[in-house]
Amino acid sequence: MYDLIIVGAGIAGMSAAIYGLRAGRSVLLLEEKGYGGQMVSALEVENYPGIPRISGYELSENLYQQVSALKGEIKYEKVLKIQEDGKKKKVVTNRAEYLCNCVILATGAKNRPLGIDREKELTGAGVSYCATCDGAFFRGKDVAVVGGGNTALEDVNFLSNYCHMVYLIHRRDTFRGEERLVHNLQAKKNVAFILESEVVALIGKEHVEAVKVVHRQTGEERILSVAALFVAIGQMPDNTAFENVVEVDKTGYIIAGEDCKTRTRGIYTAGDCRTKTVRQLATAAADGAVAALAAAAELSERSLKS
Predict the structure, then answer these.
(1) Beta carbons of 147 and 173 less than 8 angstroms apart
(2) Strand 97-105 vs strand 267-269: parallel, antiparallel, or unpaired?
(3) Given the residues 3, 102, 134, 273, the one annotated as active site
(4) Which of 133, 173, 249, 259 is catalytic?
(5) Which residue, 29, 35, 22, 25, is CA-closest to 104?
(6) Is 130 a known active-site residue?
(7) What is the CATH number of the domain that holds 62?
(8) Are 172 and 248 found together in one domain?
(9) Fewer C-beta within 10 Å: the chain N or C terminus?
(10) Which of 186, 206, 231 is the last residue in one of the domains?
(11) What local confidence, expressed as pLDDT, does residue 113 receive?
(12) Are residues 95 and 154 in the same domain?
């Protein structure tokens, strides 16, 4: 029995744990994989307030140490569902069942696939969703990146330090990412922009050998000989297990405002898994604090009424 169970140990979840523990509440963090979430793969984080530069791994480790120092408990189990159990919540995992008074869903989001033939088959054989994880395997080779946001631009910048040539393929003629990053890439001799274009096919039997690209306006096809395709076209949530207790929008994000409250009393949400405009490490950490303090306030209110 816990005061608060947090599902997901990324920056939102661990921030929530820190605030919940500091509020004197018993807290259990449940995480399917390793703590840290997607920030672990970030080679450098340069936009977190108060920290000019830090690796995603180091930031994750610092948060984990804070949780541990406060005697926070983390278990690596996949949450299958959440059930109402009177005034309490029952959290069912692949290993056990836990009771709690409040839940914070901080499940983040996962990389969005292109959705083309053989993408899943060739994942790990030239198709990758993490340039900082896999880029070094393609040192001296030609590679391509798909996307137009900051992640794609940062991936190209990172890969340009290792690879012979980096193609940036984007379906529009302008970028959603920071202009500073675009200008930086335009100055690099081993970076080429392929705009208003889409990847329509992967070529190669056992591993990626090339990609077919089609211009969206003219229909012109082009074959790029590359050893890898890095996909950075955004993220998607995975909240289907919680649709019985929270409301989600048509794209699967949990509906909640800046107060991080869901439709269900006692269930909050934090980070990239909720409906919001800005998804950054700083906003995820803020969500974690807001959700945990709201849960602590609810628990105090319940105690006064009982």
Answers:
(1) no
(2) parallel
(3) 134
(4) 133
(5) 29
(6) yes
(7) 3.50.50.60
(8) no
(9) C
(10) 231
(11) 94
(12) no
Count structural domains, the chain. 2
- Number of DSSP helices (H) and strands (E) in the chain, helices first: 6, 17
* pLDDT per residue as tens digits for the range 120-158: 999 999 999 988 878 989 999 999 999 999 989 999 999
Give yes or no: 272 in active site. Answer: no
Residues 146 and 194 in one domain: yes
Query: Which portions of the chain are predicted below pLDDT 70?
Result: none
Q: Is residue 43 part of a domain?
A: yes
Render the burial of 68-81: b for 16+ CB within 10 Å, e for the rest: eeeebebeebebee
State which residues form the domain around 287. Answer: 2-109+237-305
Phi, psi of 51 (to 5 degrees): -125, 100
Last residue within a domain, chosen from 170, 203, 231: 231
Task: Give pLDDT, residue 248.
Answer: 96
With respect to residue 119, please indicate whether it lies within any of the assigned structural domains.
no
pLDDT given for residue 189 in this prediction: 97
Residue 115 confidence (pLDDT): 94
